[in-house]
């Protein structure tokens, strides 16, 4: 892993956060735009499950980002010591 590849990983993380955020806004906008008499409809139930899934993913997003950053830092440290070939 080269040091210049870190910027592409950072851009990918920011893009993932933006996609999740926009997706949550779209699903929330759709669910609030539904008439209140259709609370038991399939569309309302699907949007609520979608929002619940996005909320679960977002609650884990900081942990996922910390793990990815840790892997990148570990890769940088190992490449600095020349262990790219698996210790051979």
Task: Please give the structural blueprint.
Blueprint: H1 6-33, H2 42-80
Question: How would you characterize this protein structure?
Answer:
The protein has about 90 residues and is mostly helical. It has a domain of about 50 residues. Helices cover about 75% and strands about 0% of the residues. It has 2 helices and no strands. The longest helix is centred in the C-terminal third of the chain and has 39 residues. The radius of gyration is 20 Å and the shape is elongated. The model has no long low-confidence stretch (mean pLDDT about 80).
Task: Supply the key terms.
mainly alpha
Brief digest:
With 88 residues, the chain is an all-alpha fold.
Mean pLDDT: 78
Number of helices: 2
Report low-confidence residues grouped into runs of 5 or more. Answer: none
Compute the separation of the termini in Å.
17 Å
**Count of DSSP strands:** 0
What order do the SSEs take from the amino end to the carboxyl end, as H and E? HH
Radius of gyration: 20 Å
Estimated structural class = mainly alpha
Largest β sheet strand count, sense and barrel closure: none
Helix content: over 70%
Shape: elongated
């Amino acid at each position: 892993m080269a040091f210049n590849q870190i910027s592409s990983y950072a851009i990918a993380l920011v893009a993932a956060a933006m996609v999740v955020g926009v997706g949550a806004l779209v699903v929330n906008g759709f669910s609030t735009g539904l008439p209140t008499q259709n609370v038991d409809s399939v569309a309302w139930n699907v949007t609520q499950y979608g929002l619940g899934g996005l909320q679960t993913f977002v609650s884990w997003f900081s942990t996922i980002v910390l793990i990815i950053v840790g892997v990148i830092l570990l890769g940088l440290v190992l490449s600095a010591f020349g262990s790219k070939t698996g210790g051979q």
